TrEMBL record:
Reactions accelerated catalytically: 2-dehydro-3-deoxy-6-phospho-D-gluconate = D-glyceraldehyde 3-phosphate + pyruvate
Gene Ontology terms for molecular function: 2-dehydro-3-deoxy-phosphogluconate aldolase activity
Record protein name field: 2-dehydro-3-deoxy-phosphogluconate aldolase
NCBIfam families (alphabetical): eda, PRK05718.1
Keyword RNA-binding listed: no
Subunit structure comment from the entry: Homotrimer.
Underlying gene: eda
PROSITE patterns: ALDOLASE_KDPG_KHG_1 (PS00159), ALDOLASE_KDPG_KHG_2 (PS00160)
Record organism: Ramlibacter aurantiacus
UniProt cross-references to CDD domains, sorted A to Z: KDPG_aldolase (cd00452)
Domain of life: Bacteria
Record bears the keyword Lyase: yes
Keywords: Carbohydrate metabolism, Lyase, Schiff base
Length: 219
């Protein structure tokens, strides 16, 4: 893991390091700030520490702050980053990487300026080319199943030999292995590690077990 040159600041990561840390990046939706720390601890206990907290709920930024402060073993990232303002707010809340459901140069520029590694979301060849033009070649393929799944990734391997993907959207424990077996896939993303009912009921041991199973998926 690359350590930031700035003494006193936390370690920083390249987008590739965010992707290679574990076979799965959990997509997290938090409804209650009180769930943030136990959920992050449960995932870390199962061997998953790169955590994508989506900016889909009003408490998402507060949750990121809590995890960043109280679970130093976790690396908090922001998901659903749709604008430069989202990226700035996430960085202020302690996010150390960003994931976006699509790509715009404004988001790419903002993340670069903030020193926030970004996994931009793409679903077409033109979007891959736009992200690559801005220097982004580690990409989230979203929504993976709906936009062509395994066949799409196989087709992209031809023209986009230097691009690596994190397919997300419809990836499950049943199909994750097939995605991870593709040479242009480094990791997958998915919400299955954090089932809403388990988070609501505080079933942290179930989440640790799901994380453990995900962490041992073979690439
Ligand atoms: O919120 C975002 O920024 C997204 O890009 C969407 C999520 O990555 C997918 O909704 C996860 O998909 P599932 O694993 O099928 O639930």
């Amino acid at each position: 893991m690359a350590v930031n040159d700035n003494p006193g600041r936390e370690a920083t990561f390249s987008p590739l390091e965010v992707m290679t840390d574990a076979p799965v990046i959990p997509v997290i939706v938090l409804e209650d700030v009180e769930h943030a720390v136990p959920l992050a601890r449960a995932l870390v206990a199962g061997g998953i520490r790169m955590l994508e907290v989506t900016l889909r709920t009003p408490v998402a930024l507060a949750c990121m702050e809590r995890i960043a402060l109280e679970v130093p073993e976790a690396v908090t990232g922001a998901g659903t980053v749709r604008s430069a303002a989202d990226a700035e707010a996430a960085r202020r809340a302690g996010a150390r990487f960003a994931v976006s459901p699509g790509y715009t140069s404004a988001v790419g520029r903002a993340c670069r300026d903030l020193g926030l590694p970004l996994l931009p979301g793409v679903a077409t060849g033109s979007e891959i080319m736009a992200a690559a033009e801005d220097g982004y070649t580690e990409l989230k393929f979203f929504p993976a199943m709906q936009a062509g799944g395994l066949a799409m990734l196989k087709a992209w391997a031809g023209p986009f030999t230097d691009v690596r993907f994190c397919p997300t959207g419809g990836v499950t424990p049943l199909n994750a292995r097939e995605f991870l077996a593709l040479p242009n896939v480094v990791c997958v993303g998915g919400s299955w590690l954090c089932p809403v009912e388990s988070v609501r009921s505080g079933d942290w041991s179930r989440i640790t077990q799901l994380a453990r199973d995900a962490a041992t998926l073979r690439r």
